[in-house]
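Suppose you are handed a protein chain with no further information: no name, no annotation, nothing but its sequence. What can you learn? This example shows the usual starting point.
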Amino acid sequence: MLDTDDLALWYALNRLMTNYWADVDGNGGSQAHEFYLPDALYAVGNNRFDGEQKIRAFYARRRQRGRTTTRHLVDNLRVFRDDARHARTVGVMSLYRADGNPPFQGARPPAMIADFEAQCVLGDDRLWRFQSHVLRPIFVGSDAPISLTIDPKHL
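A reasonable first move is to predict its three-dimensional structure. Written in structure tokens, the prediction is:
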């Protein structure tokens, strides 16, 4: 299946994805829930965070763990248009993480490399948001991310 040749759509959804991960990396995800529709799903492996409240609670718990430096890198982004207000993105996300403040010395392998798929909806405010954002881990390092280790039922 070929992805879209609509560069404006590709740019808008690339911007959604990169701004989302920039908030997670640079702001602890304090605004991450705003990238989702109120009834959206964020899932990492078997962990499901259903709805804005669970997504907000997940990122709040993540910030409570202390200073962790992360970088989420998105690559191989492909975009598929369903209709004027619905589109889907797929790609690869690599997560690097370390406890403390940078710079970090020595080699650190990725904590996770995952395929992702995101269903996106264009709102009346002309902003794209996630209806669902699902990460399927392919490689997980010995320093597994909290998104895989936390129990969503306890949020």
